[in-house]
Amino acid sequence: MDQSHFGSQITRGLVPSSGEFAPRRWDTVAGMEGSAMLDFDDDVDDFVAPENKATLLQASAHLFKSFVGAGILALPFAFREAGFLAGLLMLGAISALSLHCMATLIQAKQRLQALHPYIDFNFGNIAQLAIGPRAKSIVNTAVVATQFGFCTSYLIFSGATLHHVIWKSTGEKSGPGPEVSILCCGLIVVPLCMLKTLKKLSVAALIADGALVFGLGTVLYYTGTQLRDVGIADKVDAVHWDTMGTFVGNLVYVFEGVGMIIPIEQSMQQPGAFVPLMVVVTICLVMLFATVGLAGYLAYGPMTCQMVKPIDCM
User: Fold this and answer.
1) How confident is the model at residue 253 (pLDDT cuts 50, 70, 90)?
2) How close are the terminal C-alpha atoms of the chain, in Å?
3) What pLDDT is stored for residue 46 in this prediction?
4) What phi-psi label fits residue 31: left (phi over 0), alpha (psi between -120 and 50 degrees) or beta?
5) How confident is the model at residue 280 (pLDDT cuts 50, 70, 90)?
6) Among the four 10, 105, 177, 251, which has the fewest Cβ within 10 Å?
7) What contacts 172, CB < 8 A, 6 or more positions away?
8) How far apart are CA 4 and CA 300, in angstroms?
9) Residue 92: which of 257, 261, 282 has the closest Cα?
10) What residues form DSSP beta bridges with 37?
11) What is the mean pLDDT of residues 65-81?
């Protein structure tokens, strides 16, 4: 077989399988000393039939759910730390930068996938092909650290909220603490992490999106009621330079869904339509973030809590 068929830079190792050539789980890069092998984390055997992949509607639901979570409840406080004018400007700038980086990542992944069709791409594999094996280790460590932090904060928020709902419903002030509720939430989440395709979570994602819309609608309703009955709060500032870092940190937390863009793109029936879909979803998300953050800050001013929650923070 002519080696040039695979390109001038990449030569894939091939072994016979059932009378045909099948890809091994490694690549050799021509020109490197000793034909250095690159070990990729791929799941070629986990083939997903096209009919089991996500549609555009399902992919948009996954994107929406990935970016809309507990972080959006901290946006009113973030606007309090930045000021309403600086908050809007920084929200637009950081959102545009995040969208550019996500689109560039997906485009790089799709180009590399054309050269390496047998690799199941993730953040680490993309970094390895683009820069080298060390980059893969660094990127994988960063992804694990960020996702661990995001998931931990979600479990704490979900468990504490569930504990408060049970406490308010039963009227019992004694009994197990919020740690038990957090543990129960973890026991529910861990089995879901074993699923290998997002298609199986499409219905759950749509239900979660409905719950999020209901919750945000409730928050906006009471915020709007406060603005209608009381008006804009006193001491609402346009810019707070000294606490701008807090706003940036909260906004980065809001864009936690960046870790899901590659799995969502890979789960789609039409992966080529992912970038335009992501642009539309991001624009809608920015409008939602701006509405929630700005309305909350204008309604409560310096009294805005760090997190919208069913507990009196005063």
Assistant:
1) confident
2) 74
3) 46
4) left
5) very high
6) 177
7) none
8) 67
9) 282
10) 28
11) 84
Asked if residue 70 lies in contact with residue 157, where contact means CB atoms within 8 angstroms, the answer is yes
CA–CA separation, 271 and 119 (whole Å): 16
Question: What's the rounded Cα separation, in Å, for the pair 31 and 255?
Answer: 40
* Residue whose token pair is 């609402």: 236
Is 90:308 a contact under the CB 8 Å cutoff?
no
The two tokens of residue 101 are 């980086």
DSSP calls for 165-176: HHHHHH---SSS
Confidence of residue 11 (pLDDT cuts 50, 70, 90): very low
Closest CA to 189 of 161, 162, 155: 155
Round to whole Å and give the CA distance between 69 and 226: 23
DSSP lists the bridge partners of residue 15 as 22
DSSP string over 11-51: EEEEEEETTEEEEEEEEEETTSTT--EEE----TT----GG
* Nearest by Cα to 75 from 246, 259, 281, 303: 246
Q: Compute how many other C-beta atoms are within 10 angstroms of the C-beta atom of residue 218.
A: 11
Which residues are bridge partners to 38 per DSSP?
Answer: 27
Output the pLDDT for position 284: 92
Q: Give the pLDDT score at 19.
A: 37
Distance CA 26, CA 186 (A): 35
Q: Give the pLDDT of residue 17.
A: 38
CA–CA distances in Å: residue 42 to residues 30, 145, 231: 21, 21, 56
As given in the structure block, the two tokens for residue 15 are 């072994």
pLDDT band at residue 181 using 50, 70 and 90 as cut-offs: confident
CA-based nearest residue to 281, from 150, 37, 106: 106
Please tell me what DSSP assigns to residue 115. Answer: H
